[in-house]
Amino acid sequence: MPPSDQELRAAISDVRDPCCVMNRTHLTLEDLGLVERVHRDESGHVTVDLLLTEPTCLYYFHMAHDIEAVLKDVPGVSGVTVNSLTDRLWDADRMRPEARERTERMRRQRAERLGVRPAAAV
Predict the structure, then answer these.
(1) CA end-to-end distance (rounded Å), the chain
(2) What is the pTM of this model?
(3) Which among 34, 52, 46, 30 has a CA at the least distance from the CA of 78?
(4) Residues linked to residue 39 through DSSP beta bridges, in sequence order
(5) Using DSSP, how many helices (H) and how many strands (E) does the chain show?
(6) What angle do CA 42, 36, 53 make, to 5 degrees?
(7) CA-wise closest residue to 54 among 30, 31, 85
(8) How far apart are CA 122 and CA 116, in angstroms?
(9) DSSP symbols for 23-73
(10) Contact, 8 vs 37, CB < 8 A?
């Protein structure tokens, strides 16, 4: 039986956002709410739509590569296309509550370590 859209979404649930790896929060694309849609057609081709923070995000290619690498190993997947949606931008309200808390905790710790005031909350 071919994988469902939910199973495909679960397969990419551990793909990390490159910026979050660099800032050590290690949040996933799902944690941030960047994955708008995952769909497999009858031929097994999977399309993943990402809602990015900026339409020209340089990390899009890195995210697309990581998504493709995970999905190509899923039985029943014949190909993968990752799209960057350009009709709207990501918003912090899409973050999972735990991701928001982790981000705020890291910001406070970083500000304390540097001896500066923390930036406004996400």
Answers:
(1) 41
(2) 0.85
(3) 46
(4) 47
(5) 5, 3
(6) 140
(7) 85
(8) 17
(9) TT---BHHHHT-EEEEEE-TTSEEEEEE--SSTT-TTHHHHHHHHHHHHTT
(10) no
Look at residue 116 and give its three-state secondary structure: coil
**Token pair for 62:** 């890195």
Phi–psi pair at 84, nearest 5 degrees: -100, 115
**Spatial separation of the C-alpha atoms in residues 61 and 43, rounded to whole Å:** 24
Fold (CATH) for 5-92: GMP Synthetase; Chain A, domain 3 (3.30.300)
Asked if 48 and 30 touch (Cβ cutoff 8 Å), the reply is no
Per-residue pLDDT tens, the chain, 122 aa: give them: 789 989 999 999 999 999 888 888 889 999 999 999 999 999 999 999 999 988 888 899 999 999 999 999 999 999 999 999 989 889 989 999 999 999 888 888 888 888 888 666 55
